[in-house]
Design goal:
mainly alpha
Length: 86
């Protein structure tokens, strides 16, 4: 990462939000690989949850009813703790 584009304050905030080996954060993974767990949490927040929340926040200001759906697919014989893997 180019250190000229990210301030130390921003990096410190990221480290605090996605702390290493912190099982108290409530993530659904905790594989034992701290780097993977932190990257997964960051990616999920920034690529899925963040844009969705931003869209809903902006769209709600127009006074329309909004609906969001959360799908879970459980495949027979699969451990439901791992989601809908096929």
């Amino acid at each position: 990462m180019d250190g000229r584009t990210v301030s130390n304050e921003t990096l410190s905030t990221i480290h605090n939000l996605y702390a290493a080996n912190d099982s108290s954060l409530g993530g659904p993974f905790h594989t034992g690989d701290s780097l993977f767990d932190r990257a997964s949490a960051w990616y999920g927040d920034n690529m899925y949850l963040g844009p969705r929340r931003l869209f809903f926040e902006k769209a709600a200001s127009f006074g329309q009813k909004l609906f969001a759906y959360y799908y879970q697919e459980f495949v027979l014989g699969m451990d439901p703790n791992f989601g809908g893997e096929i």
